[in-house]
Design a protein that fits this description.
The protein contains 1 helix and 19 strands. The chain is mainly beta and 250 residues long.
């Protein structure tokens, strides 16, 4: 476990965390009703960047067009019911009344005491890793509904979907996390050419393309992975899992 100190950060509200995420859903009484539908619409914005850096040795990649969606059409619709799930990513609402989790590429909400989980996103997109904002009004998540995986946010009821990042070069993001003030986001980005996860920071506004918060490579050729960031209670430190590897000398 590594701790990174941040300057000028003030924590305004603590977010309730669940350490037993995968176990919690399977123990809650109730069921999940799965439906194939999507009632929310994305919002078109102007993206300041035109190209983004891609993998090493490859040319820059154009950013995604605003309003871009998956070109696939569903061939059939399914309805299912289940009382447990495996390897789910979930988060607890700041007021402790409900949880949000992903299952089979859709995002659901469930009362903390159990009951029927209701889908708040669905359809052809792969929506994963939902996280409540510190005030509980919004949900941050990852989705490929624009064609490539990007950061998205929506209201807690699943309405007003907004695309934050506009990458179109098949990026791989994991473990998104809100800053305590709800104005910025930390997320790990995997670079296959480096075999490493790099820590990035985004402003929680449409069209922000982010910046590196902790690089995955250094001048001495050491490769460093940073994953699963979490803010400390003081809002000025970040805890994360880290692994550094130096290439062998030949």
């Amino acid at each position: 476990m590594l701790t990174i100190r941040l300057a000028g950060r003030v924590k305004k509200q603590a977010r309730i965390a669940s350490l037993g995420a995968m176990t919690l859903v399977s123990l809650l009484p109730g069921c999940v009703n799965g439906l194939d539908y999507d009632h929310a619409q994305s919002v078109a914005v102007t993206v300041p960047k035109v190209y983004t850096d891609g993998l090493s040795g490859r040319p820059p990649v154009p950013v995604a067009e605003t309003g871009q969606t998956l070109s696939m059409e569903p061939a059939r619709r399914i309805v299912f019911e289940t009382q447990e799930g495996t390897s789910l990513a979930l988060d607890v609402a700041p007021d402790g009344t409900s949880i949000v989790f992903d299952m089979l590429g859709d995002i659901y909400q469930l009362p903390i005491g159990g009951g029927t989980a209701q889908p708040i996103t669905s359809g052809m997109a792969m929506d994963t890793q939902p996280v409540f904002s510190p005030d509980g009004s919004r949900i941050l998540f990852l989705s490929d509904r624009s064609g490539a995986e990007n950061l998205w946010q929506m209201d807690a009821d699943g309405t007003h979907l907004t695309q934050i990042s506009y990458y179109d070069d098949d990026p791989i993001f994991v473990s998104p996390e809100w800053a305590p003030d709800g104005k910025s986001i930390l997320v790990s980005r995997f670079w296959p050419d480096r075999n490493a996860y790099e820590l990035w920071r985004f402003n929680a506004v449409p069209g922000d393309m982010g910046e590196v918060a902790r690089a995955s490579h250094s001048d001495d050729a050491t490769t460093t992975s940073s994953i699963a960031p979490s803010f400390a209670s003081d809002g000025m430190s970040i805890y994360l899992a880290s692994l550094s590897e130096t290439p062998p000398v030949v």
